[in-house]
Amino acid sequence: MLALGYFMTGNMAKAIETQEKAIAQLPQDDRAEYEATLAKYRQAAEAESTDQGQAVPTDTDDENSRTPDDPPGAGG
C-alpha cells in the first residue's frame, strides 16, 4: 500500500524502491502479483521520463526522490 501511495502521488522512484523491498520479503510463491505491479510502476516511470525527455532514475536514494510539488528531475 505504501508503494501505491508513492505511485499515486507521482513519486515513481520511491514507489519502485518500496515495491522492490516488499517483494524481497515475500516467499517466492507469493511474488507474482507484486512483481506485476512493480512492472507497471516501472513502465509508468519510463513513460513519464520519455514524456519529459529525462532518464528514469535507477538510484532510489532520498536525494533522487521527488514530491509531486518538485519539478521533474528535482531531488527530494
What does it look like?
The chain has 76 residues and is an all-alpha fold. It has one domain. The protein is built from three helices and no strands. It has helices at 2-8, 12-25, 32-52. Helix 1 (2-8) packs antiparallel against helix 2 (12-25) and helix 2 (12-25) packs antiparallel against helix 3. The longest helix has 21 residues, at 32-52. The mean pLDDT is 82.
Write the layout of secondary structure elements.
Layout: H1 2-8, H2 12-25, H3 32-52
Helix pairs in contact: 1-2, 2-3
Please outline what is shown here.
It is built from 3 helices and no strands.
Instruction: Report mean pLDDT, rounded to a whole number.
Output: 82
Looking at the chains present, what oligomeric state does this protein adopt?
A: single chain
Shape: elongated
Total beta-strand segments: 0
The poorly predicted ranges are none
Radius of gyration: 12 Å
Number of domains: 1
> Strand share of the residues?
under 5%
